[in-house]
Every structure is written in structure tokens, then in C-alpha cells.
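[Discussion] Sanity-checking designs against the backbone

I'm trying to build intuition for which residues belong where. Below is a C-alpha cell string of 571 positions. I'd appreciate it if someone posts a full sequence so I can compare it with mine line by line.
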């Protein structure tokens, strides 16, 4: 119901009262003439006045026109290209603010001393960060009096000076280096209380057991970086070394290799050619020369293909062994590899077949055993064929593992045995055709630069042909190493090496060859570094903490507990 406006109601009441006042005489007169009937009115409910809604009538005018004014329109579209001008405006590249570069220092020195007359010094000097080149020089000296009990003088020293450098070209990297090493050892594997040796002058005996190896080497490498997959990338390397000792040995080795790689559709092709020439000369007191010359030429093409979950490589290695004394020999070796991702990168299975010819020279033998005689016979080892397979993967984002099984046949495998000529304190090499099985496992754990742990183990089973035992070769080898960095202030390191018992060949009283067992050991080492500042730090290295006596080589016991302490400084 619509509500009335209050001022409007008030005016209506005024007009109603005025009308009643004017009509009242007529009402009185009418009452006098006529008699009014009595009327009864029954009120059911209170009076509720209502007002109906108002509706407006639509009376819009309409114009009726009988004339049609529509005009037909005829139009055509003519195709025409409209020339529009568009100029590309250069946009300034967005600047990304990255982490600040770590400040580099040119020089680093490390110096220390320890027990058994240990003296250690090392220095690096490098070029600072550059987009064009990188070069540096390194020098090191490590010496000790040895002081191993119940044997001859066991002092040693190792010195080294090497320079290295790289030049970054537009599409190539040129690198190279020069290296000088001087190693002095004493063949201390004899009994100084022996009745024959007891009467000799100590200085004379010390000089007679000294051996000095001098190595001078150099290398150069040219590596291409073509981005176009249709171009042939190349990796060219050349190297040379000369090894000499104080007993008249001179060994020269020259090696050159070329790797050519290119994609053919989805396959990756790699062709390798390598030439390895080695000459060994031995000068005796009578100025006669005993020379050994050998050249290995290897040609190894391979082709590989990769899929989302697999990798397959197939190839062959052809080797020509040119021996100046025995003529030439040609061999071909398979080179096959296959891997498949069973569970993404978590578990990957792999297997393969391979073979090669391995170079044996005085440098490789003396690096493993510095107490060898320089007139030993040199033969290359023929790794005829090897089958291998296993699994590898990642247990998490910071850990990985690998387990494998390998079965291999090797012809002319070298083993070190005691050389009983003279004082009987040297070693020579015997060769044998063998078959062996190797079980290998390794686990690594790393967490940025704070924690790193690596554990590996190898177990060997040998089948010999002519030699009774795999001389100086343990059946089990285990190595564990770890590093913990505490807020870049304290760095702790630990290493554990363990190997099982091994066998060595000796001569009994009747001059017959017999096998003796050398017990195994567990060698525990630890190191601690305290970084006083970012440039100055102190270090302490503890070796053979358990002070166990063991023989890596027959008649050559190693040093027991020893320590080395010192400081490092960068500038």
C-alpha cells in the first residue's frame, strides 16, 4: 500500500472541515423535514485504507507513411595491399644480478715438518681469472730420513717443478705443460747386521743403495669446439718424456693421438688413431748399449647411439705391436658397451666387452715399485678380452653407488718378485698368462662442500698358468675416505686403507723358489686443518695411527706412526 504525503493529508482535512461547515445548515433543514431511520453498523475489524496502483496509458504517436524510401546499395571490394612500415627498435638486455665472483689469489704456499726428519714444502703461482688464458707454475719437495727399524737406510725425497697453461681461442683450446721430477730412494730391503755387510762403511753402503730417477716431460693439446654437429671436432695430443737413473738408464717415449668425432643423423661417430713409441737404453760400465725399441699403433673406430633410456656403443680396436727384437704382431679387440635406465637415474644396468694392448715401460714399473732393477725385461700386456657388467645409480640427490663383476683374460701379465742378485734388495718382473674375476663395489655420499664420503672395495680371484701365485697382489682391497667442513673454519679428513694377505717369492737354502705370506693390514690416517683466516691456516696430518708394521713389498717394511704439521698461506 502506498503511503500519502503528510502535508497533502493536512490540506485534505482542512477542505473536508470547510465543506462540512458550509453544508451543515442544509443537513439541519433536512433533518427537520424528514425522520431518519435507525441504521445499525457492525464493525468487524479496524478500517484499513488502501490506494490502488496507478498504470500509465501508452499513447505514443505513430506516423504512417506509404512511400518506401529504401535505396538498393551495390558495392565491390577491390584487393589492394597497403604498405605498412615497421621498424624494429633494439631492446636493452635485462641485467641479471648474480652471485659475486669469488676473489682469487695468485699464490699459495704450504710448509711443514714432522717426525722421522720429515720436511715438506709446496707452492703454486697462477694467473688470475681471464677469458683469454690460464697458466701457472707448481713446485713441491717432500723428504724424510725414513728411520725404519732393522733394515738399511730408508731415506727418500721427491721433488717436482711443473708449468702449465691454456689459451682460449675462438673455436679451439690450446693447452700444454712442462714437468720435471726428481725422485731419490734407497733400496733398504736388507739386514744391516749381516756378517758380510756389517764390516762395510755406513756411508759407502748408503751411497751404494741409492737410486735416483729423473723425469723430464712435456705435452701439448689442441681441442676444437665446433657447435655445428655436421663439422668434425678433433682432439689432437702429443707428449714426450725422458726417464733416466744413476745406473745408466735412458728411456724415451713419444706419443701422438687424434680423436675425430661427428654426428651422423642420430649416431655419434668417433675415430681414434694413436702412435706410442718407446725406446729404452741401458749403458753399462763397459760403455756398451743395450737398447729396446717398441711401437704400438692403435686404430679404434666406434659408433654410439643414445635413447631416452639406453646407450649403445659398438666398435673395434686394431693394434699393431712393432717390436724391434721380435717382429710385428697384429691384434683386434672388441669394444662394445650397453646401458639401460631401469628406474630413471636411480638404477642403471650396464654391460660390455673390451680388450686392448697395454704399454709396459720402466716409468710405469718404477712408479708402482721404485725398488726395481733397471735391466728387467719389457713386454707389453695383452688384455685379450674382458666381459663386465653391473648396476649403478643414485640412492638420493647426494649419494650414488656402483657394483660390477669383471672377468678378464690377460697374456703377459707382470708380477714383481725379489731379485737375488747382489745384495738381493731389488725387484724384477715375471710374466704369466692369467684369468681373473673381480668383484667391485663403491658408494659415495656428498653434501655440497660440507661432507664427502667415498668407500670402495675389490675382491679378486686369480687363475695362474705358470706362476704359482699372483706375487705382491692382495686378494681383497678396501678404501674409505671422508671429509667434513665445519663452517669453512675446521676441515677434518680421514682415510682408511686395508688389504688382505699377499704372497711373495723367496729362495730357500737349497736355492728353490718358495712362496711366503705377507700379512695384511689396516692403515688409518687422519688430518685436521684450522683456517685461522681466509688466507692463513694450520694443518696436522697423522699417518698409520695404529703404528702397525706391514710390508707392501717383501723385505720392505713401511714407516709406523708418523705425523706432519705446518701452515698454509695464500696471497
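Best answer:
Here's mine. Compare freely.
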Amino acid at each position: 500500500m502506498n503511503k500519502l504525503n503528510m502535508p497533502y493529508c493536512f490540506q485534505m482535512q482542512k477542505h473536508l472541515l470547510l465543506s462540512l461547515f458550509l453544508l451543515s445548515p442544509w443537513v439541519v433543514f433536512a433533518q427537520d423535514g424528514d425522520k431518519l431511520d435507525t441504521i445499525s453498523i457492525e464493525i468487524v475489524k479496524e478500517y484499513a485504507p488502501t490506494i490502488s496502483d496507478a498504470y500509465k496509458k501508452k499513447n505514443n504517436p505513430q506516423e504512417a507513411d506509404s512511400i518506401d524510401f529504401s535505396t538498393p546499395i551495390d558495392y565491390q571490394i577491390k584487393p589492394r595491399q597497403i604498405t605498412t612500415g615497421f621498424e624494429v627498435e633494439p631492446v636493452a638486455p635485462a641485467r641479471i644480478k648474480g652471485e659475486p665472483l669469488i676473489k682469487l689469489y695468485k699464490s699459495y704456499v704450504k710448509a711443514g715438518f714432522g717426525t722421522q726428519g720429515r720436511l715438506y714444502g709446496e707452492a703454486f703461482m697462477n694467473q688470475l681469472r681471464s677469458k683469454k688464458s690460464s697458466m701457472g707454475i707448481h713446485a713441491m719437495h717432500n723428504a724424510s730420513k725414513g728411520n725404519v727399524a732393522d733394515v738399511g737406510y730408508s731415506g727418500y725425497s721427491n721433488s717436482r717443478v711443473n708449468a702449465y697453461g691454456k689459451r682460449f681461442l675462438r673455436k679451439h683450446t690450446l693447452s700444454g705443460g712442462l714437468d720435471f721430477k726428481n725422485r731419490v730412494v734407497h733400496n733398504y730391503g736388507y739386514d744391516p747386521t749381516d756378517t758380510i755387510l756389517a764390516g762395510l762403511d755406513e756411508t759407502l753402503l748408503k751411497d751404494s743403495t741409492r737410486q735416483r730417477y729423473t723425469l723430464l716431460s712435456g705435452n701439448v693439446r689442441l681441442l676444437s669446439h665446433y657447435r655445428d654437429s655436421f663439422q668434425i671436432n678433433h682432439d689432437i695430443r702429443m707428449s714426450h718424456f725422458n726417464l733416466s737413473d744413476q745406473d745408466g738408464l735412458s728411456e724415451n717415449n713419444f706419443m701422438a693421438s687424434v680423436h675425430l668425432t661427428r654426428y651422423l643423423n642420430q649416431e655419434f661417430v668417433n675415430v681414434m688413431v694413436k702412435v706410442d713409441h718407446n725406446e729404452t737404453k741401458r749403458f753399462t760400465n763397459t760403455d756398451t748399449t743395450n737398447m729396446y725399441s717398441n711401437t704400438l699403433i692403435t686404430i679404434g673406430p666406434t659408433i654410439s647411439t643414445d635413447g631416452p633410456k639406453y646407450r649403445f656403443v659398438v666398435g673395434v680396436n686394431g693394434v699393431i705391436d712393432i717390436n724391434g727384437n721380435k717382429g710385428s704382431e697384429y691384434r683386434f679387440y672388441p669394444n662394445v658397451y650397453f646401458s639401460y635406465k631401469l628406474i630413471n637415474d636411480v638404477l642403471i644396468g650396464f654391460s660390455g666387452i673390451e680388450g686392448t694392448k697395454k704399454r709396459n715401460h720402466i716409468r710405469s714399473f718404477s712408479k708402482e715399485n721404485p725398488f726395481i732393477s733397471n735391466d728387467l725385461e719389457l713386454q707389453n700386456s695383452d688384455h685379450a678380452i674382458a666381459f663386465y657388467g653391473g648396476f649403478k645409480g643414485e640412492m638420493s640427490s647426494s649419494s650414488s653407488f656402483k657394483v660390477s663383476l669383471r672377468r678378464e683374460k690377460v697374456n703377459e701379465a707382470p708380477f714383481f718378485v725379489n731379485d737375488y742378485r747382489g745384495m738381493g734388495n731389488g725387484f724384477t718382473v715375471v710374466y704369466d698368462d692369467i684369468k681373473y674375476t673381480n668383484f667391485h663395489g663403491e658408494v659415495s655420499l656428498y653434501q655440497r662442500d660440507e661432507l664427502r664420503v667415498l668407500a670402495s672395495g675389490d675382491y679378486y680371484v686369480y687363475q695362474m698358468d705358470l706362476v704359482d701365485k699372483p706375487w705382491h697382489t692382495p686378494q681383497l682391497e678396501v678404501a674409505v675416505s671422508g671429509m667434513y667442513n665445519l663452517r669453512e673454519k675446521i676441515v677434518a679428513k680421514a682415510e682408511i686403507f686395508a688389504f688382505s694377505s699377499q704372497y711373495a717369492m723367496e729362495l730357500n737354502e737349497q736355492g728353490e723358489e718358495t712362496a711366503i705370506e705377507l700379512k695384511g693390514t689396516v692403515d688409518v690416517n687422519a688430518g685436521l686443518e684450522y683456517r685461522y683466516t681466509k688466507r692463513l691456516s694450520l694443518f696436522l696430518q697423522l699417518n698409520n695411527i695404529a703404528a702397525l708394521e706391514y710390508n707392501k713389498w717383501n723385505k720392505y717394511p713401511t714407516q709406523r706412526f708418523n705425523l706432519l704439521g705446518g701452515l698454509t698461506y695464500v696471497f
